[in-house]
Design goal:
Layout: H1 3-8, H2 21-30, H3 34-41, H4 47-60, H5 63-73, H6 82-94
Helix pairs in contact: 2-3, 2-4, 2-6, 3-4, 4-5, 4-6
Length: about 100
């Protein structure tokens, strides 16, 4: 799957079946379902899962919680827009 294909899937009723849980979480986040995205992300105990979890908490404004998850992900706190970080995460997850 490419970034373009993933972005096109945002017009669908649900995330692409072939995408993993983290991509599905990011899909739901972009569709405005933060809670659904968070429920998926918090179940993934990997560095990528921690990164998505950090992004979601930063986006909601919980910087303290986000800092914890960025640390678990081995990443520095992202200081750009949520949209830029969203795209960076998608690219990393699909190996763009």
């Amino acid at each position: 799957m490419t970034l373009e294909e993933f972005n096109s899937s945002l017009n669908d009723a649900g995330p692409p079946e072939e995408s993993g849980s983290l991509l599905k979480a990011m899909w739901w986040d972009k569709k405005g379902n933060w809670e659904g995205a968070h429920n998926l992300a918090q179940e993934i105990e990997t560095k990528d899962g921690a990164w998505v979890h950090a992004y979601l908490h930063r986006k909601e404004g919980d910087v303290g919680n986000a800092s914890y998850w960025y640390s678990k992900a081995g990443r520095k706190i992202f200081h750009g827009s949520s949209d830029l970080e969203w795209e960076e995460i998608i690219k990393a997850l699909i190996q763009y």
